[in-house]
Every structure is written in C-alpha cells, then in structure tokens.
Amino acid sequence: MKLKWMTIAGPAIVLSILFYLSRPAKSFLFEGSGSGTTFTPTAWSASSFPLQWKINPTRSTAIVGNTPVTNVIMNSFTTWTNAPNTQLSVASPT
After folding, report:
1. Interval 70-91: pLDDT, tens
2. What integer is the mean pLDDT of 12-31?
3. How far is it, in rounded angstroms, from Cα 6 to Cα 12?
4. Alpha helices in the chain, H assignment, sequence order
C-alpha cells in the first residue's frame, strides 16, 4: 500500500514543484545583447532622431487611388508616432 502511494505522490510532488517554479511564457523576445547575467536592451541612439526619410514619388501601376504617395507615407508616420507609449520624432522630407 505504501509503495502504491509513493508511485502516485512522488511524481505529483515533482510536477507541482516544477509548475510552481516555472515562469510564464511571453509571446515576444526582448531585443538586446549580453552574456551571463548582464543584458543590455537594444535601443536607438537619441542622435538618430528625428528620423529622416525620402521617397521616390513616382507612382507605379500597382498603386491605386488619388492620394499622393508622400501624403500616404506622412500619414503612416503620423499613425506610428501617435501610438501609445511611443517617443519618436519624424522629420518631413525636404
């Protein structure tokens, strides 16, 4: 009787301990570099801002609509910079 109890309780205890010590899974990976216990998050340098961009305004046949291509890109950047928890500055093309 004692042996039967141990064959059930032993693995149950081990699984309970492993479940208790396990960390929740995340749906993303932190970007950075490091070794051992040192981790440095990847971040853009403050000197990289404002972001500069240039676009070829020539419209191909694959693009439909009447909005100029540069307006579409500027609107896209506006959506990106207005996102919550975003500290990003983008310069309009000159």
Report:
1. 888 888 888 888 888 777 788 8
2. 79
3. 9
4. 2-21, 69-81
